[in-house]
Amino acid sequence: MFNKLRSLFSSPAEEPALPQARVPAGRRVYAIGDIHGRIDLFEQLLERIEEDDAARGPAETQLILLGDLVDRGPDSRGVVERAMQLMASGRVRVLAGNHEEMLLGSLEDTETLRHFLRHGGRETLFSYGLTGPEYSRGKLEEIQERALALIPHDHVAFMQSMENQIIVGDYLFVHAGIRPGVPLDQQTIADLRWIRREFLDHAEPHGHLVVHGHTITDEPVLRPNRIGIDTGAFASGKLTALGLEGDERWLLTAFIAPQEREAA
After folding, report:
1. What's 38's domain CATH number?
2. 148-180, pLDDT tens digit by residue?
3. Are strands 226-228 and 221-222 parallel, antiparallel or unpaired?
4. From 169's CA, which of 47, 111, 124, 211 has a CA 20 to 30 Å away?
5. What is the total count of domains within the chain?
6. What residue numbers bound the domain in which 93 lies?
7. Which is it for the CA torsion 172, 173, 178, 183, positive or negative?
């Protein structure tokens, strides 16, 4: 059994104290950052979450996936299938990331497909059964035709049904971030899935404490107005989850060193 790894938040001397945001009484939430095809880390982190949840006692527990389940890592299909299984429990909600957007768009538009393939989509299509020779010799139209044949309709429907924002108590969960100063009901999908600098550089409160992925950092980023938990799983071998209950927050990490993965 893997030992549970829990990180403590930065000391007040390093970062300003986070506001006392809360989730409703009786509820417990776990949010998982960008998985990017790393089914090995996803399964390990799910095990740690299950152990942590059981140790904390009864609660209405919900799991939120922050998007970018696919691309770059070796088993996007496996991650999507596992997420679909979890959805059947009724306690899991999934946000759409920019990589799900690219995948869906690539099934309809060859220019989007070109962009998708350059940003990890090749590995995704390989996980669905596209072969190396098909990729090397195929024109964009041919690769698109194979993608349409290889990706199951229920996987496409699952990605089409993903949410763009989720509110639980004082927390707002999005994939990339929000545009500062814009009401939540007026946020664009493009910003929710793609924004970076304008959101990341904004230091003022947003009205909710925003939990997001999308922007990779070596360690989780804990700021007074946002918490970022994309730790670059596909390359770093580290997948991070944030746990929330009442006004308490904690981190759980799954880790597989690159050399361990190569030896497996």
Report:
1. 3.60.21.10
2. 999 999 999 999 999 999 999 999 999 999 999
3. antiparallel
4. 47
5. 1
6. 27-256
7. negative
